[in-house]
Design brief:
Blueprint (H helix, E strand, L loop, with lengths): L1 H8 L1 E3 L2 E3 L4 H8 L6 E7 L3 E5 L13 E8 L2 E14 L2 E10 L1 H48 L16 H30 L1
Antiparallel strand pairs: 1-2, 3-4, 3-7, 5-6, 6-7
Length: about 200
């Protein structure tokens, strides 16, 4: 937008592109609290018209608008280049506006920090949720284990049919089947010993 705005301020007079703007207007244009903003305006016939002379053009002459990175006075800058070909049929005007990357880097750091914080929060919530679900899901198994642990050595009665998950119900049914067989075998053994 800034390069297009500057481009709109360029006029063509006496066969030459002209950029007549007051210093306060230019100061307002390049003012930025965080970044340094530079501009350069050239025409294809006469070269440099206005702006910062050490700022150079981007290598893209084909497109009306081009973006790129450049180093100006030792500082990395992001630049936009606008080429106007509508002022004069034989002359094009190139407007380059560049700014340092402090705001972009600060924004990227904030976005990354926020992303990392949210990722950490999601990880903690996921661990808590998985632990809660597993704890709740394993509670019937813990109760069943505790009930078996409290039994007396000779107690071969069936395990109670408490409300448990279907996977655990097949396990309790198998244990109950084993207890019934053990009870039957123990009863046969007691009868055999009693008959002697």
């Amino acid at each position: 937008d800034s390069a297009r705005t500057l481009g709109q301020l360029v006029q063509f007079r006496d066969g030459r592109a002209v950029f007549d703007q007051s210093p306060p207007m230019l100061q307002a244009f390049v003012f930025d609290v965080h970044d340094q903003v530079l501009f350069r305006i050239d025409d294809s016939a006469h070269g440099f018209i206005a702006g910062h002379s050490s700022l150079h053009a981007l290598d893209d002459e084909l497109h009306e608008v081009a973006y790129g990175d450049m180093v100006v006075d030792g500082q990395l800058m992001r630049a936009v280049q606008v080429i106007r070909r509508d002022l004069d049929p034989d002359t094009s005007v190139r407007i380059v506006v560049a700014e340092t990357l402090f705001k972009r880097q600060r924004l990227a750091s904030r976005v990354l920090g926020t992303f990392m914080a949210l990722s950490a929060l999601m990880a903690v919530l996921t661990v808590w949720l998985v632990r809660s679900v597993l704890s709740r899901g394993l509670e019937p198994l813990r109760e069943l284990s505790e009930g078996i642990r409290r039994r007396k050595p000779g107690d071969l009665t069936r395990l109670p049919r408490t409300p448990v998950a279907s996977e655990l119900r097949t396990f309790t049914d198998a244990i109950n089947g084993l207890l019934e067989r053990l009870d039957a075998a123990t009863s046969l053994q007691r009868r055999f010993i009693a008959d002697r």
